[in-house]
Amino acid sequence: MTTPTLMPYDEALGRFEPVLGVETHVELGTASKMFCGCATTFGAAPNTQVCPVCLGLPGSLPVANAAAIEATIKIGLALNCSIAEWCRFARKNYFYPDMPKDFQISQYDEPLCFDGYLDVEVNGEVVRVGIERVHLEEDTGKSLHVGGATGRIHGADYSLVDYNRAGIPLVEIVTKPVEGTDRLAPEVARAYATELRELMRALGVSDVRMEEGSMRCDINVSLMPRGSSEWGTRTETKNVNSLRSIERAVRHEIERQAAILADGGTIIQETRHFHEDTGETTSGRSKEEAQDYRYFPEPDLVPIAPDRAWVEELRAGLPELPSVRRKRLRSEWGVSELDMQAMLNAGAVEPVEATIAAGATPADARKWWMGELARRANESGTPLAELAVTPAQVARVAALVAEGTLNDKLARQVLEGVLAGEGEPDEVVAARGLKIVGGDEELGAVIDQVIADNPDVADKIRSGKVAAAGALVGAVMKATRGQADAGRARELILEKLGAA
Amino acid sequence: MSAITRDEVAHLARLSRLALADDELDHFAAQLDQIIESVARVREVAAGDIPPTSHALPLTNVFRPDEVRPGLAPDDALAAAPAVEEDRFRVPRILEEEA
Ligand SMILES: [Zn+2]
């Protein structure tokens, strides 16, 4: 693999304007496949979820899954699309062993949903990404290439195919070309995929796990010289399988194409492959030799004509959409979009929401989940939501701090105990003896001793240098081995020294 | 003028993974031409206000509920495979890129 020549990003953006497009495939989370009753469980033993229909055996006939049709219409509605009055499935013919029928049932010029948009936010600005179409098709089988380079096709001696995935309902969402993103093209592509994933989750139509392939993105990029309005030739980078990779792939294509164009070269319209390890794309099959799919209306499936009343019923039943929900939570919690994005990226929005519902203040809930718990999740490589602590337990810890039983340091120890399986917060407090050094009387005695031990500092405070109190608070905390309420200690110190 | 050219037949043959000899191409091109011309007669009666038909029955919205039904036992599923390895269909290596 030769390393392509790249033009530095800033220079590339100075000379060219990128035009972006994203095609996303989302596997629907239906119980059964698109056209047969086979199960869709991920990770099942090879070829155990197959039948005559999805194996393309002679005489079998497909029947469309009602839940998949419904999910696709919901996706279309959430993406502000029009829903077709009448449309058909089509056969996409090609020879490749991942489809045993030698064709894939898809939709061609009559998508179920079309002409919508999705608003995404990048750096506080709203970018409207147009949606060209949302259509329904079936997923393909999975090939394992044996011999040659591992997993890749080139050099493989033979292929082993598992058809469990063949026939799982797959929704393809295609954007219109996105212009005017300028240097933010990589971020816009990532923000779009992120928003789309959130949307699918909110609709409950897919588990959208990019690492398991239930959401896959192909990225189209082309460049046009500044001042021109004529689009350049685009490349399509396939199966970019993480949000970060989307951003990297767009950036890389901009740098690569700019170098070729600036050198007087031409961009070949082709499929490219993204390499996670190097962040580069390499050439796949070129569009000139692209296949002639000979699409024609699928004769074995009758047309779909969604009843308008049903469509309106589905529209009325849509859940609160993620962008609307974020806006609401932002105002309810009093946080900035940046903080909200940080919580989203950390997977903290749901836990924080549940913790608030369990009685914590928004500030406390956010503090614990985005601070101590995020740190521990990070350390152990566990998703935040899968930590062994419940929102109710976090709320209880926050309450213990609020009522003065714990300070933050002790609270962290309580959380550590809960995570280690030592029981409920109150049990950990009791078992580990983690109570704050009690009432004013007990604390006052410690403070008297500290003042006696540090006469110089005490004099400074008496003479009005309130900032010096910090040193005495530190000494109190040390004397109590951290089990004191620092805020209350400070108040008492200032009171005793007549500086309050 | 013929309805289908020899080149088009060669293209279709390639797409269908059929290795046709030159004389076979001539033979099939002539046959296909006849078939297409026969079918094209429908066009003579079709007026502009009649949309093309893709389905014989005037049905729409035939769906099945999203219910799992038993499929084939693995041995049955693999019975028709050209070769089997690790419970998978073993097929010749694929020269084209992943679709
Ligand atoms: Zn099946």
From TrEMBL, chain A:
Q: Does the keyword DNA repair apply?
A: no
The protein's matches in InterPro entries, at most eight in alphabetical order, are given as: Asn/Gln-tRNA_amidoTrfase_suB/E, Asn/Gln-tRNA_Trfase_suB/E_cat, Asn/Gln_amidotransferase, Asn/Gln_tRNA_amidoTrase-B-like, GatB, GatB_Yqey_C_2, Gln-tRNA_amidoTrfase_suB_CS, Gln_synth/guanido_kin_cat_dom
UniProt keywords (A-Z) are:
ATP-binding, Ligase, Nucleotide-binding, Protein biosynthesis, Transferase
Q: What does the UniProt function comment say about this protein?
A: Allows the formation of correctly charged Asn-tRNA(Asn) or Gln-tRNA(Gln) through the transamidation of misacylated Asp-tRNA(Asn) or Glu-tRNA(Gln) in organisms which lack either or both of asparaginyl-tRNA or glutaminyl-tRNA synthetases. The reaction takes place in the presence of glutamine and ATP through an activated phospho-Asp-tRNA(Asn) or phospho-Glu-tRNA(Gln).
Q: Where is the Asn/Gln amidotransferase domain?
A: 350-497
Q: What is its EC number?
A: 6.3.5.-
Q: How does it assemble?
A: Heterotrimer of A, B and C subunits.
The GO biological-process annotations, alphabetized, read as: glutaminyl-tRNAGln biosynthesis via transamidation; translation
Coiled-coil-forming residues are none
Could you tell me what this protein is called? Aspartyl/glutamyl-tRNA(Asn/Gln) amidotransferase subunit B
Q: What Gene3D superfamilies does the entry give? A: 1.10.10.410
Question: Can you provide one Gene Ontology molecular function annotated for this UniProt record?
Answer: asparaginyl-tRNA synthase (glutamine-hydrolyzing) activity
Mention any Pfam family matching this sequence.
GatB_Yqey
The record ties this protein, via NCBIfam families, to: gatB, PRK05477.1-2, PRK05477.1-3, PRK05477.1-4
* Organism the protein comes from: Bailinhaonella thermotolerans
Domain of life, per lineage: Bacteria
- Recorded family membership: Belongs to the GatB/GatE family. GatB subfamily.
Catalytic activities: L-glutamyl-tRNA(Gln) + L-glutamine + ATP + H2O = L-glutaminyl-tRNA(Gln) + L-glutamate + ADP + phosphate + H(+); L-aspartyl-tRNA(Asn) + L-glutamine + ATP + H2O = L-asparaginyl-tRNA(Asn) + L-glutamate + ADP + phosphate + 2 H(+)
Gene symbol here is gatB
UniProtKB/TrEMBL annotation, chain B:
What's the short name of a Pfam family annotated to this entry?
GatC
Keyword set includes Nucleotide-binding: yes
Any GO BP annotation? translation
Q: Reaction catalysed by this chain?
A: L-glutamyl-tRNA(Gln) + L-glutamine + ATP + H2O = L-glutaminyl-tRNA(Gln) + L-glutamate + ADP + phosphate + H(+); L-aspartyl-tRNA(Asn) + L-glutamine + ATP + H2O = L-asparaginyl-tRNA(Asn) + L-glutamate + ADP + phosphate + 2 H(+)
Q: What's a Gene Ontology MF term here?
A: asparaginyl-tRNA synthase (glutamine-hydrolyzing) activity
Q: What keywords were assigned to this record?
A: ATP-binding, Ligase, Nucleotide-binding, Protein biosynthesis, Transferase
Which InterPro entries has this protein been placed in?
Asp/Glu-ADT_sf_sub_c (IPR036113), GatC (IPR003837)
State the EC number(s).
Answer: 6.3.5.-
Name the SUPFAM superfamilies for this protein: Glu-tRNAGln amidotransferase C subunit
Tell me if Hydrolase is a UniProt keyword of this record.
Answer: no
- Origin, by domain of life? Bacteria
Q: What does this protein do?
A: Allows the formation of correctly charged Asn-tRNA(Asn) or Gln-tRNA(Gln) through the transamidation of misacylated Asp-tRNA(Asn) or Glu-tRNA(Gln) in organisms which lack either or both of asparaginyl-tRNA or glutaminyl-tRNA synthetases. The reaction takes place in the presence of glutamine and ATP through an activated phospho-Asp-tRNA(Asn) or phospho-Glu-tRNA(Gln).
The cross-references to NCBIfam families, in alphabetical order and at most eight, read: gatC
Family recorded in the similarity comment:
Belongs to the GatC family.
Q: Which PANTHER family match?
A: GLUTAMYL-TRNA(GLN) AMIDOTRANSFERASE SUBUNIT C, MITOCHONDRIAL
HAMAP family the UniProt entry points to: GatC
Q: How does it assemble?
A: Heterotrimer of A, B and C subunits.
Output this protein's name. Aspartyl/glutamyl-tRNA(Asn/Gln) amidotransferase subunit C
State the organism of origin: Bailinhaonella thermotolerans
Q: Could you tell me the gene encoding this protein?
A: gatC
